[in-house]
Amino acid sequence: MGARARLDCPSVSDASVTILDADALQRLRDLDPKGKNHLLERVLAAFETSAVRLSRQLVEARRGNHMDGVRLVAHTLKSSSASIGALALSRLCAEIEAQVRTGALSGIDDRLDAMDRELRAVLQAVSPLLKPPQ
Amino acid sequence: MTLRAVPFADDLPERPRVLLVDDDEVNLLLTSVALRDQGFDVTEASNGEKAIRVLADWLPDIVVLDAVMPGLDGFETCRELRVLPGFESLPVLMLTGLDDDASIARAYEAGATDFFVKSPQWSLLSGRLRYLLRASRTRVELERSKSRLARAQDLARMGSFDWRRGQGGPVFSIEGLRVFGFSPGDHPAFRTLLRMVPDEERSAFLELTHSAMERSTVLATDVHARLQDARQRIVHIEAEPEFNEHGNLIGYTGIVQDVTDRRLAEDRIRHLANFDTLTGLPNRRQLIWRAEKALEHGRRLGHQVALLLIDLDRFKVINDTLGHGAGDELLIEVSRRLRSCVRHSDQVLESSLESVGVRSHRTLEAVGRLGGDEFVALLPEVIDEADAERVAARILEVMRKPITIGMQECFVTASVGIAIFPRDGANVADLLRNSDIAMYAVKSAGRNSSSLYRPTLAGVGREKLELESALHKAIERNELVLHYQPKIDVRGAKMVGAEALMRWRRHGVLVAPGDFIPLAEETGLIIPLSEWAIREAARQARIWQDNFGFADSIAVNLPNRLFERTDLVEYIHNAVTTYGVPHHMIELEITETGLMKDLQNVIPSLHRLNEIGVEISIDDFGTGYSSLAYLTTLPISELKIDRSFVRDLGMTPQSSAVVTAIIALARSLGLRVIAEGVENLRQMEVLHRLGCGIMQGFLFSKPQAPEDIERWLQQTVLPKKAPWIGQASAGDVPEPPRATRGRDSRLTTPLG
Asked: From the DSSP assignment, how many helices (H) and strands (E) are in chain A?
């Protein structure tokens, strides 16, 4: 999680623009306007670490049909994805969390797959932001 | 108790310490960065277990808990930290999701202070934290102030209560219960409380509360209460009515306070202010107050009031001889006796005084002490003056029995002056003054009696009183002087001694001895006055010795009572030693009457004086009834022929016969003889012819200030310019042979 990039340079790909909400990213940048603390990097790195772990937990929970585990992953991912501006992912997580809580589980597998896809897309969008500029 | 200023609730720590607990690393990181940015000091914990560990030895200002966490979730963590000591009122904010109503309810159940819906709007979170911190601070202050109030109330033995109409008895705070000796948790019924009030006060108290409630007024009263442990306390109750929105009384709220100690202190102060500490009798202030009340009643009901001023006779002598301790004991006993002469009431119930028609003023009757040895008996209602005189007679009667102090029996009498309202004065001051005048009339008439005031008495006693108090101060103010009248040896034309005569220079005017010596004798002041005269004479003898070789004696007149003093010899010895003159330079004169009146007591003193060389002269000789038998044995040196015989010399044959006899007597007893009051040459010649060669009188010199005597010696005697000089020596009568007993040098001492 060391310093790898200056993040205020306009080298962000199109994908990241659509998957990660620009306003949300700007709010994060505002917390560390001059980038001294490499806050954005650290947050995104933390997201990446946590998302990879959660994604593994989700696979296991689904395999064991462990709905509480599913719910906890969805809950955690819901707020952390919202924090980095992955709004679509956050929305999917919220829907899944609500489904599990209410027990209305129809179509949940599709949603979980969609969440998995979206998570990958988010991680892909995050990845270039973590790399130091060439 | 120190009271520190309470910090304002806004006065938050500079960087409030936050414990942030969240299992989501992203959120943890972002929240803590945001909060640090907003001035918080953030400690992170990634789960509930870690948070509890951190809190084991650290107390943050606030805890922020994520509600949903694996393992120990936010609710459990909150529950656990609440039971840790010191965390009971720590603010805890629970972070929940937007759509999670159930969590909100659970958060409060778990003991969270508040909840916050997670949001990337960081400033919202920090605003909420500050609000919570302020609220918490306010609450802590409130708790502190509540406990301070409880402590203050406890110290003040005070507590509060509320009473709601129709809801049973009053509800007390813990402190309020304590005032009545109840434990926390007790709910005493109104009936129980009422039973604590003594029977005689209960109905009055009930009446008061009912009337306060009827009129919806403030209730404030003191009531006695007998607690369950039988302690008697005085409880102050103060309560204000409370009203509902329609303005109807719904109850009372107020305080109860144990004011027993304060009341006792107040009673003590009142007692000190109104009663004499030595005798316990009402003091001047209380007496005057009572007298004023008595006069009010007298005016209203049209009866007479009597004021008896009682002054002990010769109390000063007792005080001087037995000491102040004995004097105090005597006053206490006198007070006891005086009380028995009237219907003395220690306490006056002011409320009862107001009831008209009742003979309530009777309770004013008392004996009080004005100060010193002066007492007053106040009789609030007398039929006539005989009524008052009867009480006075009773007072004189109870004093007749001797008072034993230590081992000694004292006889004390009193002089009583009576003034009657309204006849002798319309107010207390006039009555006091007039009873004083009447009392002084008794004193001058010989004491140990009583007298009613009469307008004719006014003035006499007062003047004397003033004179007496001025004379008291005369010595210390240096107002007394001695004048000297020379004793002349007419044949040798020289001064052979002088008689010292006291003068009082008062307001620049010389008061004649006749105007103050009798008073001094009466009051006992003659003792210090005489002692002063002895010292002053010794001092003057020294001055004359130095100035012109004076070696004769200065005669000082002493009252016989001074001869009774065992320390007289010592006193004279000290006086002459102080000024370095021989003892014989002081001669003492005692009147024949004084000597004979008290012969037995005076004789030992005369012997001792004689032994140290102080000679005694008998003044006014021939006017008393001397026992010739005694005269032969008395250690005296000189007889002074009374001026009345000298005045009549050459006019009545009887006077020359008396003078001849005295001279013969003196000669046969070996005493000097001297004639006083010699005013003309004829008297001088006759005396000389009859054999009296030493004289004193205006013919030679009136009594003069010592400096004037010196001038007179220089200007008149030495140059032999006076008409009397040469007359006697020119006569053909030889100086009679003189048997000397004692020193005789004066006759040969030349004037220097």
From this structure: 6, 0
